[in-house]
Write the structure tokens for this entry.
Amino acid sequence: MEIMHRLCQIRKQRGFSQAQIANILNTTQQQYSKYENGVHEIPVRHIVVLCRFYGISADWILGLSEEKPERS
């Protein structure tokens, strides 16, 4: 549950649309929306890509750390 909220939070904080992030993940906006809405679980490979893209820890996305990522 925490993952979907954090995916949405970091995307909005950094000023990206769902379509832009979907493009980075080589998926559709509709599929990415399902990750943010908790309809489907996001694959680990996508989490890795997003961590590298945003320059953040997987621990934060997964809800294992409360340390908020810095704004970029």
Observations:
- The chain has a mean pLDDT of 92.
- The radius of gyration is 11 Å.
